[in-house]
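Sorry to interrupt, but I need a hand with the structure work. Could you add the entry underneath, on a fresh line?
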Amino acid sequence: MKFGVGQTVERKEDQRFLTGTGRYLDDIRLPNQAHAAFVRSPHASALIGGIDVAEAKAAPGVLAVFTAADLDADGVPAIPCMAEIPVKEGTTQKMPPRPVLEGRHARNVGVPVAMVVAETAAQARDAAELVAVDWEPQPAVTDMRAAMQPGAPVLWPDDAPDNVAFEWVDGDQAATEAAFARADRVVTLELVNNRLVVNSMEPRGSIGHYDATEGTWTLYNSSQGAHMNKDMLLGTLLNGVDPEKVRVLCPDVGGGFGMKIFLYPETVATLWASKQVGRPVKWVNDRSDSFLSDSHARDHITTVSAALDKDCKVIGLKAETLANMGGYLCNFGPYIPTVAGKGMHIGVYDIPAAFIHVTGVFTHTVPTDAYRGAGRPEAAYMVERLMDKVGRETGLGPAEIRRRNFVKSSQMPYASVLGLTYDSGDFQRNLNDALKDADWDGFAARKAQSAAHGKLRGIGLAYYIEVCGGAPSVPALLRFEADDSVTAIITTQSNGQGHETAYSQIIADRLGVPFEKVNVRQGDTSWMKTGSFTGGSRSVPVGGVSAQMASDAIIEKGKEIAADLLEAAPADIEFHEGRYAIAGTDRSTDIFAVSKAWRERHAGGDDSLLSAFAEFAPDAATFPNGCHICELEVDPDSGQVEILRYTIVDDFGKVINPSLLTGQVHGGVGQGVGQALFEGVVYSDDGQLVTGSFMDYGMPRADYSPMISFRWNEIPCTTNPLGIKGCGEAGAIGAPPAVLNGILDAVIGEGVTRVDMPATPLSLWRALQAAKVPQAAE
């Protein structure tokens, strides 16, 4: 079928995006709308002695100025951390409050302490500068190891006097220690997973509107899930409010990457303020404040070790990770370095014993939470950097050490020692294909050519796997309209992935209707009582199955009508490519005729349109996986890295749209290269954000994005009916270890033994210079 599953189809949503007719948050202007701006802490740690708002209130256009005292007087609750995790035995999880506006002690630069509402955005910003805060600066700590030392500044004395938010473990410690005790060799690696600012193309924003006449609350939000936002609001600010009185809308969303899932202080404050001033209140973040107020990501320090037997089989793995939570806990912060990546710390390897220990640490920094991959990139980076070091120290090299330790395809389904069951996959095949595509065997000659030109050439290999496409469920509703179009309401939220196209292909393929007849609707809680969100590469693997199930339900509902039209028994009716037919005959009618007859039969009733609802709740996740190979050059005189060849062979199960798939992988690689080479948050000792703008924070540019050789092997998963494994995060998972392994391969011959992200030209140049200095004799 034209434009069906498996075919390359141009994204239908791009017509409005490329012509400037999309509808983003800042395009929305409600009648009588006011504007908000926030006063933020300039200190990483400071007590708040008092806040004088008199001058700000008198400024032109100002409608109101609010502080924590106003919210407290109205009973506005703190924003909860929703990530209660199973902690290490004998310990507790510390979950201190995160006020909407801080009124006592600001614990990182950027914390909102006051809100100004004015006629215009400019007036609100001008008046915000007039708010006078009596700050009492306190000592700050941004380094996790320093934060855990005796005498360090304590962020939450009553809740976490040692600055430890939680301890989490996974695996069998006794079995792992036994494996290390009998090992023939132990290889240990320390590495840093650098802190990132998400930097979505469209900044966060929200419009709150309380209608006093109707008693209704409406929130427009640049978010990854309207229903999740609604559920969070009903559990906090709007606790006790009739859910029917609350509506959340998400228009077009310009990037999210996990950061836009959450409920932020500004969103709650904007909605609450609307009731206070009797008008809609709009707030849109600027880029500078985004650096200070959007959740940050990653920021781990890990020490990981592998125990090997005489045949270089890894018989045990153990890891200790410090994970920076920031000054407050974001909605799912503790979940990300723990449960989100659970089971991924042994990757694609048949390792019989493992033990993982993660300690969450409070520091005077912006809170951290999910970012593309959310815990799985951190796990993959750890194990793939370790496997490269094992291959180097044993002399087997990066490919052979992986071959010896892979889970074999004959072992599928494979129950890992960390509790996950890989249902399908052929890691050996993907590795071999990638090595061939990358001309691995020809690398030595190319390295010699680079050396002749004074360049250091390296090649890096990484094999990732991730767990995604699992719970929770995603509801879907399909209906045939009177104009013979098909409306599909699906409660995920596209923020650039191409959902409208992918869902349309699945529905068109199943119902046999033209692709252009399917209209996908997302982002309005009034369309469906319950819903989901976008995250974890689960929209199509879960939402797509719901759409297929709803399509099947419509087909079944239509058989009775088709039987009447064809004067046959329903049991004799078959459906194929949009047509109902009497089995064994050429008598048939199409689904649009059936839809029309349905409307005529049910005219005026609640069920006047042929429709169906479905909700797929997966019993298990999916496990996309693949091999990345990065070949690059390092200029020893400048430390500059140039990626010359980039090769990927992936397994995403059944592919819905090759073009969408390729775009997702390319974009993910771009972000992964960004983390590997450019991006990295830097704080000063007193907690100031040094990299607070694009002047200081490195972002990947088009001229640094590699040309990518990309293909895939379709090995359908068995955990969802479509056989899809999910692809949205894969590129960002595989790229960082591949790039860093390639860089170390290039420079290790010069005496450099450690390279961390971001491998900037300056950091590489310094490492190369330091390696030239003879080490003093002990």
Notes: The CA atoms of residues 276 and 288 lie 28 Å apart. The chain has a mean pLDDT of 95. The first helix runs from residue 14 to 18. The two ends are 74 Å apart (CA to CA).
